[in-house]
Amino acid sequence: MQINEQIQEALERFQTGENFYSQHLFGYHQATYNGEEGFVFRVWAPNAQQVWLVGTFNNWDDSIPMEKNEQYGYWEVFTSRAAEQDLYKYKLRQADGREIMKIDPFAISFEERPGSAAVIYTIPERKWKDGLWIGRKKRSNAFRRPLHIYEVHASSWRQNEDGTPYTFQQLKEELIPYVKEMGYTHIEFMPLMEHPLGASWGYQLIGYFALSSYYGKPEEFQDFVETCHINNIGVLVDWVPGHFCINEEALPRYDGTAQFEYQDPDRAQNIRWGSVNFDLGKPQVQSFLISSALFWLEMYHIDGFRVDSITNVLYLDADEGPWQPNHEGGNRNFEGYYFLQKLNAVVKLGHPESMMIAEDSSSDTQITGLIETGAVGFDYKWNMGWMNDVLRFYQMDPVFRKDHFHLVTFSFMYMMNENYILPLSHDEVVHGKKSLMHKMWGDRYNQFAHLRNLYTYMLTHPGKKLLFMGSEWGQFLEWKYDEGLEWRDLQDDLNYKMQQFTRHINHLYKTEPSLWELEQSPETVRIIDADNTNESVLSYIRQGKKKKDFLVVILNMTPVERKDFAIGVPYSGVYEEILNTEKQEFGGTWVWNNEDCQTEEQPFKDFDYQIRTIVPALGALILRPKQINVRKKKKQKY
After folding, report:
1. What average pLDDT score do residues 430-451 get?
2. Of the listed 238, 308, 360, 389, which one is catalytic?
3. 133-143 burial, b for 16+ CB within 10 Å, e for fewer?
4. In DSSP terms, which residues pair with 28 in a beta bridge?
5. What distance in Å separates the CA atoms of residue 174 and residue 180, rounded to the nearest whole number?
6. The sheet that has 550-556: what strands, in order across it?
7. What is the pLDDT of residue 602?
8. Is the pLDDT of residue 222 over 90?
């Protein structure tokens, strides 16, 4: 097989892990051969004995054998028999002589499940209209901007009456206006790549370059992203580079050997997820995965990824099965560690404004920050410790909270260790875990009071935010991947008012710079009182760039109203209440806000002044300086 210089260069880069556009090499491509128009197909299968191209164009028979290039381990064939919309697979005689049909790993479209054949499909050229959004991203510092993510499972946010999922055209018409009205800054989709089983929620992938046919056509998703950007909403997508679907027709033992996965069966097998782990130290696998990431960023203009299951990538003992220590005697998976650094470096080189988010439950490796300092290079990390502590606390009977108050204060001790996102995600509301509302202690009224308190705590705690769909109105039922959300809940007064509260505090978060301007600096927060365990009231200040730009937050974690409650403040003057979670409009009982607070010149812990107010039972208050004197108090001379 003769190959031209351009193809040879692309193959060499693929072999060395440096071809980040390998979909231009493999898969199918329109071509002309000896004056005849058709398609050239290429597939990487170095240890296969023979490969055939099979599909609807040849009745799935062996009439189109492919030719192997021994040097680079790939197979190629040109045919004029294939056409747009045809289905195809590769039939491999594997290393042991077994014959099996396999998917095209580089396909950009698949038939509807349960079928797994690829579709010859050309994504139309698009003239994008989101230049203003792209320009703003490049000019602004994302770390000093608000980030509140609405996490969505595309096929269960809302469904048609016949149970079919909304198309992206329908989501464009309803989801985007809803997200904008509710005050979120970004939508994050659970994986949209091709996967054969809906029950996997998209985390068991077969098509790393293909939008799942279950969600529609690629150009429909492009249109959705563009409309989001025009409406100042970012789009993030979950991506799974650690493990892949175990289905036989997919990537496992593709050519009859451990081609995409680790050679060691203990490392290849992912027991917890019932999947197969990528060999992230193999150069060709690195080319494959990084190409997938860049493809989604560039083909769909998405704003970044939430990278799933980082713990499984970083540590040899993350799974349930046997494992062997590395050459240093430890548990770090060096292949995974260096792959993630390489992934982030390549993505940031080409798309510095893109957002890379890690879902990691460990604390042994620096996840966010500069690669040069030893960090993995992500922009943000999910704060799983905060999430676990907080949900444990809010589920607890308030009688015992004074003995466990550290669960809501400990996060302030390590809040600067990473660039965190505070996630209340789909993982916390699935079968057997209860919804967020149902987790809360007490009767239904108190559960909603708790939820408002929790969201106030999350929105005012340092760190970016993420909330799963349905949680904004306190859906009582757990999330079901194959059913739409319980939108009829909003006919109930408490659910409707909960939704309006979430909308109100989301917009408050976006418009108050003190809640995000200095988030990478310890100056962003100043604790007023984290030691009031007996009354279980937590208070702190969120600070903006300007001295006068700050908010005072008071969280009452018990169902006992605190009258004439004193807290310290940094400056003398008047403070006004801008949020009271127990207002009637939010589902509480208060008709009016507290009156403005005038400071008393009386020390309170580290503060020279204090104010007094009423803190509702299970209520949260946010106060803002109305008229204050920021000049330092003169020391008395003796």
Report:
1. 96
2. 308
3. beeebeeeebe
4. 41
5. 10
6. 525-529, 537-543, 550-556, 620-629, 572-580, 597-598
7. 96
8. yes
- 359 in active site: yes
Give the number of C-alpha atoms closer than 13 A to the C-alpha of residue 354, restricted to the C-beta side: 27
Mean pLDDT for the stretch of residues 389-397: 97
**Cβ(278)–Cβ(261) below 8 Å:** yes
Whether the CA torsion 98, 104, 110, 111 is positive or negative: it is negative
pTM greater than the 0.90 cutoff: yes
Side-chain half-sphere of 21: how many Cα atoms within 13 Å? 7
Domain with CATH 3.20.20.80 in the chain: 146-515
Class of 525-629 per CATH? mainly beta
pLDDT of the residue at 1 = 63
H/E run at residue 388: helix 384-395
Place of tokens 């050229």: 125
Output the six-digit token pair for 286.
Answer: 């690195």
The SS3 of residue 499 is: helix
Q: CA angle, 200 as apex, 194 and 202 as ends, to 5°?
A: 35
Q: Which helix (H) or strand (E) holds 193?
A: strand 193-194
Q: Range with the lowest mean pLDDT among 172-181, 183-192, 298-307, 626-635? A: 626-635
Instruction: State the pLDDT confidence band at 636, using cuts at 50, 70 and 90.
Output: low
On whether the CB atoms of residues 611 and 571 are closer than 8 A, the answer is no
> Where do the CATH 2.60.40.1180 domains begin and end in the chain?
525-629
308 catalytically annotated: yes
Residue-by-residue DSSP string for 223-264 = HHHHHHHHTT-EEEEEE--SEE---TTSSTTTTSS-SSB-SS
- CB-hemisphere CA count at 13 Å for 259? 20
Contact between 162 and 218 under an 8 Å Cβ cutoff? The reply is no
Strands annotated E in 407-536: 420-424, 464-468, 525-529
Nearest to 296 by CA among 172, 175, 211, 233: 211
Of the listed 359, 389, 418, 472, which one is catalytic?
359
Q: For the chain, give every residue range classified as CATH 2.60.40.10.
A: 5-119
Top-level class of domain 5-119: mainly beta
Task: Residue 553: name the closest of 631, 432, 461 by CA.
Answer: 461
Tell whether the model's pLDDT for residue 638 goes beyond 70. Answer: no
CATH of domain 146-515: 3.20.20.80
